[in-house]
Specification:
The complex is a heterodimer of chains A (316) and B (251). Chain A is an all-alpha fold and 316 residues long. Helices cover 75% and strands 1% of the residues of chain A. In chain B, α3 packs across α4 and α4 packs across α6. The chains are: A mainly alpha (316), B alpha/beta (251).
């Protein structure tokens, strides 16, 4: 074989490898996409019996859940999910932002190198441990400290009045959730803040701005879309959290009116009941319908937040 | 000589490594002082001690004094933001703040509450953009993001932003090294215009730029100050062998 042919073979070979790699990677990428679709479609088919039997609006807005009487109202569960998640996010976000701003902007390298791994470790604690902690500490804390504090003072305040005498409920669930999603929000926000080049900070410090003025006027405006993405990530995690919430939220299918009410979020409903009392007609389909509703709620939430983010990025 | 900045027994450390060795120097008022020397000689480090930017790098240490207008800026009761208001910095790469052209210039004035109302801010922004030689190019697009400007324009915007807080001293850390020749020339002529009102200290590694700008020259080598003096003397008749070699382009 002469020189030219050898070179030609080598070139053909590497082109082949390149095309092969491209195809393999495409296949691997498309797999999770297909999987998501399969899950959604399978849920739809398994929930189809109840979807064909009842009006969609009756299912979504129905307030009563009595499977043995054929009443399948998802409303308490949808609202329960939204309530617990909202309380969790509201409690978590301000503290998380302060922590990540402190770590990224103020803290010494040594403080950071100690605090960051510990915070990341919080994310490694299994949800069931959070649940036990909630049961043993947070529920009594709500019952013995927060509820007595609110009683008499916040009775006329909507959403904050004490409505039932146990510590179980949305507030306990929200507190547990807040602690659970905090490491995620902190670490993503920290990474986002770290992307701001030091030149930019120095430009502000150089004209005599304080560190706080620099953070408020330069660092935060520059990273706001990323910070919002971090919060969305935390909220998505909260929406689907099951076991820890289930252990402290009370699991009563009522329509919540206050953070002291009990609630029954969708994931708890499915986890508590699937596999039991399956002789009740349509019960299986109803629970999988609940799973489908949860999927749709999370999907809608993610789509909305993506739209908000895109809008912000376009304005920049 | 009327000294604006006096450096006394200054030692600077990155970790355990000594970056500035016992520097003593006086920087003349309302002149352009050029600090030159090969890379790694400590010239940027010295410059950064003048506006207390040196301490922004973690794990650094400083001993000695830097006096601006006779006051040691490293005294415990000195407000670092006041130091940086008096001693402005033009960085190596222009870094416009993530806001409009107008807000970039108004930024420092707002932070120090230098103006009373909208009108005064408007006049102020216009004034400093004119000084920086940028007004004619941007007067119709003040609300556009500053990042939409060319690199050369951005550097003049940074100059305007720095001047807007009414400093007495301008530091330039190789302020033209990221720019094209025409933009560099533009910045240089601004600095020459401004030297009547401001004490200017420039770090550069281009000898030709040093010769064009300098009234006073500081030559450094390996963290030590080798020679300092009026530009004419140092360039025509360097006293030290190292300076001579550097000026001849031997290293």
């Amino acid at each position: 074989m002469n020189q030219v042919n050898v070179i030609k073979t080598i070139q053909e070979n590497r082109t082949k490898k390149n095309i092969f790699a491209q195809k393999i990677f495409f296949g691997i990428t498309i797999f999770p996409v297909i999987l998501t679709l399969i899950v959604a479609i399978a849920l739809f088919f398994r929930a189809f019996p109840i979807l064909s039997e009842y009006q969609l609006s009756d299912l979504l807005f129905g307030e009563v859940w009595r499977p043995n009487q054929g009443l399948f109202g998802f409303r308490p569960f949808i609202l329960g999910t939204i309530w617990v998640t909202t309380v969790g996010v509201i409690l978590a976000v301000p503290a998380c932002l302060l922590v990540s701003i402190y770590l990224a902007e103020y803290a010494h390298a040594r403080t950071r190198s100690i605090a960051k791994p510990i915070l990341d470790l919080l994310a490694a604690i299994p949800p069931v441990v959070y649940g036990v902690w909630g049961l043993l500490s947070i529920v009594p804390f709500v019952d013995d400290v927060l509820a007595p504090l609110a009683e008499g003072r916040l009775d006329s305040v909507p959403l904050l009045s004490v409505t039932q005498p146990t510590g179980f409920g949305i507030l306990a669930g929200g507190i547990v959730l807040a602690v659970m999603i905090a490491p995620l929000i902190i670490s993503v926000t920290f990474e986002v803040l770290s992307t701001v080049p030091n030149d930019l900070r120095h430009a502000s410090l150089g004209v005599g701005a304080t560190q706080w003025q620099t953070i408020r006027n330069v660092v935060i405006p520059q990273t706001l879309p990323g910070i919002i993405a971090a919060i969305v990530l935390g909220a998505s995690r909260a929406l689907g959290e099951t076991i820890a919430v289930l252990m402290v939220v009370g699991n009563v299918p009522n329509i919540p009116t206050s953070i002291f009410d009990t609630a029954y979020p969708l994931p708890a409903l499915i986890a508590n009941n699937y596999g039991e009392m399956m002789s009740i007609p349509l019960y299986d389909a109803a629970l999988l319908g609940a799973a489908l509703v949860l999927l749709v709620v999370i999907l809608i939430f993610n789509i909305l937040s993506t739209l908000v983010l895109q809008r912000m990025l376009r304005r920049k | 000589m009327d000294a604006h900045i006096q450096v006394k027994n200054l030692n600077a450390y990155y970790g355990k490594q000594l970056a500035l060795k016992n520097i003593n120097i006086e920087i003349p008022k309302n002149q352009i002082t050029v600090i030159m020397g090969p890379s790694g000689c400590g010239k940027t480090t010295l410059l950064k001690t003048f506006n207390r930017f040196f301490e922004l790098t973690e794990n650094t240490q400083l001993t000695g004094e830097v006096l601006v207008d006779g006051e040691n800026i490293y005294n415990k009761d000195v407000d670092v933001t006041e130091v940086r208001k008096v001693v402005g910095l033009l960085a190596q790469r222009p870094s416009p703040l993530p806001m409009s052209i107008y807000d970039n210039v108004a930024y420092g004035m707002r932070i120090h509450h230098l103006r009373k109302n909208r009108e005064e801010y408007k006049t102020g922004v216009k004034h400093y953009l004119e000084i920086a030689g940028l007004w004619d190019e941007v007067c119709k697009r003040l609300s556009e993001p500053a990042t939409s400007l060319s690199i050369g324009q951005q550097q003049r915007l940074c100059l305007a932003r720095g001047l807007a807080v009414e400093p007495e001293i301008i530091l330039g850390d190789e302020p033209t090294s990221a720019l094209d020749p025409i933009s560099s020339q533009n910045i240089e002529s601004r600095l020459l215009e401004l030297k009547k009102q401001y004490t200017t200290v420039i770090v550069t590694h281009t000898l030709r730029q040093a010769k064009r700008l300098a009234d006073y020259v500081i030559f450094m080598y390996l963290g030590e100050l080798i020679e300092a003096g009026p530009a004419k003397e140092v360039f025509s008749n360097p006293k030290h062998e190292r300076t001579k070699q550097y000026l001849e382009g031997l290293f």
